[in-house]
Amino acid sequence: MSKHNWDKAFESVIVHEGGYVDHPSDPGGATNLGITIGTLSGWLGRKATKAEVRALTKATVKPIYKKNYWDVVRGDDLPSGVDYAMFDFGVNSGPKRAVEFLQRIVGVTVDGRMGPQTLAAVNKQDARVVVTKLCDSRLAWLKGLSTWATFGRGWERRVNEVKIDGLSMALTPEEQDVQPTVPTNVAAAAFFALVAAIVYGVFKSIGVF
User: Fold this and answer.
1) How far is CA 29 from CA 13, 36, 39, 74, 185, in A?
2) Single pTM value for the model
């Protein structure tokens, strides 16, 4: 389980969401730090103003993200990596849709609710496989939206980054401790190539070559 990933997941999502925007092509309307005016209205229990949206800070939106998205997809109960991929998907396109995509991937009844059957199925599978399939199917769906021409480049970059980070988070502690090594002969060859390049540069500068 991955209760320790909440803070990290939140910080990563905030980076993708950015600051205040009010794009005419965005059905969410005025948005700041990923929180739309509609979401803020629901949180406050009244109609929010654009000024209130603009005034949002990381501290004020964090509990909204926790309750409306992380808790809805049951991030604390998901495997590491899957939790972040689901959280970001839910923030970007709605928790219900994110859960439905996950349910299709793990082969359980698709009802958009993260219940015990879905959690059990997810936790039986390789988290890296789930993260990969989730991000790939999410991106394929986004490409079919009418707003892809406007927001597609940003969406694609976001999903690819979530996939990379999610796969990294899904590594076991033992896998994370493994450091890549360079064979001694390769390192030596690289060193002598560098020396040769430097020597050549020096000789060329003084007119030898």
Assistant:
1) 19, 6, 10, 27, 58
2) 0.79
